[in-house]
Amino acid sequence: MKALLLSLLLVPALVLAQAPVIEISGANFRPLPLAAPAPVVQEGADKKAAQSFDTAFTYDLTASGIFQVLDRNSFTADAKEGMTAGSINFSRWADVGAESLVKVSLAQDGGALRGELRLFSVATGKEELKVAKDAPAGEPRQLAHALADALYRHFTREPSPFLSRITFVRKAGANRDVYVADWDGMRAQALTKGGTHILPTLSPSGQVAFTSYRKNRPDIYVQTPGGEAKPLVTEGQMATGIAYSPDGKRIAYALAEGESAQIYVASADGSGAKAITDTPYGLNTSPTWSPDGKRIAFVSNRGGSPQVYVMNADGSGVKRLTFQGNYNQTPDWSPRGDLIAFTARDERNAFDLFTVNVDTGKVTRLTQDQGNNEEPTFSPNGRLIMFSTNRNGAAHLWVMTADGNNQVPLPMEKGSWLTPDWGTAPAAK
């Protein structure tokens, strides 16, 4: 399995003032050794809020896949060391293998929690980044995600996934309920309560669409967090697998009628629905849009077993993409456009995750010998994949890099969590 190459490049002086940039490509993996001591808590700041901040900030950096976050137990620097370059003994940080040092101080001003982040090069002792962010005093995790995003952007020149949202299903007894949460599964909010609600997806505007059996039949509903669910697709015997186009103006979904299921495309409000597949007695399901909105990948058994296919958004130009295995499902198209992640059942009847290159058809295995791993969904920048796994018992949500490395669980409470969907990147501020 190929890993990430993180090589530090120097951008020309006229571009980004010679800031080091992490190039995430290639075959050799070397995460950036980063020291991130506990935040300095200024007088008046709440210590519990600081602890919540620290937990979220450290998790973001660890799960990102681009940093090697060093163990704090190895640190030899003075715990009372300051926030400025002149007060830091950089040799102590070099001794523990750090190449970069990030320091954060937290202060509270009325109802706001302010965080100041400073990044230093250990080799040169120079300050490379200084940024301050505010958040409501009761939302320290929000502040942590904002500062982690600033650090990620500094090194990669692209948005992190830390400010995005996810949706998923919680299984409890006979109930299946839809939730929305921060990218790490925290601050979760239930949209439904009781009954069977499955396969949620986030629209670019933040609405959640899902299949619900609230009227004793599977129809697609759409709901704004805090609002009421409204019917969106109520035709056919079963409507499932809704996916929004990248611009949010169209939806694709599967509609079952009789002995077949076809892929439909409609406007985001459900109007103007049109079938774009036509395979009598065949099943076509699980549509996912290409990042340019011009193509759709989907699952079809037209060749005898469920396989991943690609077609134009009007249904023309159908092309089979996977040929290995006899049960491939739940495709998700990377926002970067190059890969489609999917679930496949192997020869031992275990479910594992793979990617297939859209242009070459090359298949790469991401998980193996760790229970069942299903329902992959890409982060907005295409660098991470979230999925559901039962490797430690009940189904839980995990995240890994797009090549299958750095697999870590989301810091959620115990439960049975299923079918995650990662929302699009938030608008730039």
Automatic annotation (TrEMBL):
> Quick one: signal sequence residues?
1-17
A biological process (GO) of this protein is: protein import
- Where does it reside? Periplasm
- Could you name the Gene Ontology cellular component terms for this entry? periplasmic space
**Could you tell me the keywords of this UniProt record?**
Periplasm, Signal
Record domain TolB N-terminal: where: 21-127
Which SUPFAM superfamilies does the record associate with it? Answer: TolB, N-terminal domain (SSF52964), Tricorn protease N-terminal domain (SSF69304)
The family database entries (Pfam families) matched by this protein are listed as: PD40, TolB_N
Alphabetized InterPro entries for the sequence: 6-blade_b-propeller_TolB-like, Tol-Pal_TolB, TolB_N, WD40
Superkingdom, natural source: Bacteria
Family stated for the protein in its record: Belongs to the TolB family.
Protein name, entry field: Translocation protein TolB
